[in-house]
Amino acid sequence: MIRTVAAMILAAASVQMTCAGESPEVNHSAAFVQGEQWLDTDGNPINAHGAGMLYHDGRYYMYGEYKVGETVLPEWATWECYRTDVTGVSCYSSSDLRNWKFEGLVLKAHENPDHDLHASKVLERPKVVYNASTGKFVMWAHVESADYTKAAAGVAVADSPTGPFEYLGSFRPNDAMSRDQTVFVDDDGKAYQFASSENNATMYINELSDDYLRPTGRFTRNFIGASREAPAVFKHDGRYYVLTSGCTGWDPNSAQIAVADNVMGPWTVWGDPCRGKDADKTFYAQSTYVQPVQGCDDTYLAMFDRWNKTDLQNSRYVWLPIVWGNDGMPTIPWRDAVELPESKK
Ligand code: DGJ
User: Fold this and answer.
1) Is 276 close to ligand 1, i.e. is its CB under 6 Å away?
2) 251 in ligand 1 pocket by Cβ < 6 Å?
């Protein structure tokens, strides 16, 4: 009886992550409750922070920061640069967005103290894209020094979505700082890196070479002086959208959505897409990625991190579907849980 009541309450406050307009039977046990500990298929907590997703050959792959161990604030810190040791980038795979199989660390920390991936450094926001012309999986990530002065992008490459990824090195794209970042591949196969630059004040959109390994040298400066970070880019009905956060370290702030007819801009800011309880604080979370749900025209899953800045490995996740208004404006209403259909496979 108690379980039935709990299921009814959850059903009232949750949303079905199915194709817009469809209402298939959904098992309520398949709901992810926002901010609770989410488990992989082995029963371990999903550890993929600042994550991105890739859909490839009928499977979703999720890549994120694998945060384990103590969170430290260095004694020399002049701001809240809490960090955990670099361990690597985790990968999980799923056929249904609900059941996630741990595929291991696909890019691992390095033993050399001078290496970008040494435990003493910072590795954030890995994003993996597939290059159809080279057949390679390409990872871009924010690689940092412990004091966040390096502000560079690291690139790695693999033959399989589950790695192992070979680290190729880091640089500042177009000689500009690169911190929070994502990579977006357009329908024509061209790829773009979006990165918080100029000390996070301005977002750069860097066009990438055909192999996705380098910038071409063509870039635009966007949201100049507006201090936006945590970019998540998606395309709907031929228009481009970028969801971002403000810039307040690990603390939550208001999200913002902008729209453009051209991926390199100019962008028009539409404002905060979040709706409902704690919307002005992005539900105490920060954007990381927006994943189109395969086979569903208008269904997009917006992914957020709910950071626990003094215990980063215990940071949690918030996933919410995007709701499209008649004006084309996307909104992200709060729901206590997101129901993801169990795989029929
Ligand atoms: C906000 C960024 O979005 C995070 O990825 C991380 O870099 C923190 N700042 C560090 O304070």
Assistant:
1) no
2) no
For the chain, 345 residues long, give each residue's pLDDT as a single digit of tens: 344 444 444 444 677 666 655 544 444 456 899 999 999 999 999 999 999 999 999 999 999 999 999 999 999 999 999 999 999 999 999 999 999 999 999 999 999 999 999 999 999 999 999 999 999 999 999 999 999 999 999 999 999 999 999 999 999 999 999 999 999 999 999 999 999 999 999 999 999 999 999 999 999 999 999 999 999 999 999 999 999 999 999 999 999 999 999 999 999 999 999 999 999 999 999 999 999 999 888 899 999 999 999 999 999 999 999 999 988 899 999 999 998 765 443
Residues 118/110, Cβ–Cβ less than 8 Å: yes
How much distance in Å is there from the Cα of 249 to the middle of ligand 1? 5
Instruction: Kindly give the pairing relationship between strand 337-339 and strand 286-292.
Output: unpaired
Task: Answer whether 65 contacts ligand 1 (Cβ < 6 A).
Answer: no
Residue where the block lists tokens 């959505």: 257
Asked if residue 171 has its Cβ within 6 Å of ligand 1, the reply is: no
pTM as predicted: 0.94
The span from the CA of 279 to the CA of 273, in Å, is 8
312 CB less than 6 Å from ligand 1?
A: no
- Ligand 1 centroid, distance to 326 Cα (angstroms): 34
C-alpha pair distances (Å), 319 with each of 59, 181, 238, 248, 296: 18, 19, 24, 21, 17
